[in-house]
Amino acid sequence: MLRQDGEVDGYPEFHLVQHGSGTARRPRNLIFATLGKPDIRFTSALDNDIEVAERADEVLVYDRPVGKEGLLWRHLLSWWQETRDIADQEQAKRSLYRRMEASLP
Predict the structure, then answer these.
(1) Which of 9, 32, 70, 79 is most buried, taking the most CB atoms under 10 A from its CB?
(2) Within-domain flag for 100
């Protein structure tokens, strides 16, 4: 739902606000690193919440916001290290690189 929060330069300023019983999860916007096409479905079109129904173990789902500078390797590495619980950064780099390389035809 749009809600007017004020004015900027004489024009009304609106923001999206959650209405009803939506989820608090982050949207999953980036599905990558797969050789095949996964079966996906939207569980909430408003929240852009995507569920990977089949081949979920064959895809990577980056579920963090992508900033203005885009998705950089350091962001991807940090995500990989945290979601895979890898303490050593060098080990995380090697395993992410191998995983990404495995998805190339």
Answers:
(1) 79
(2) yes
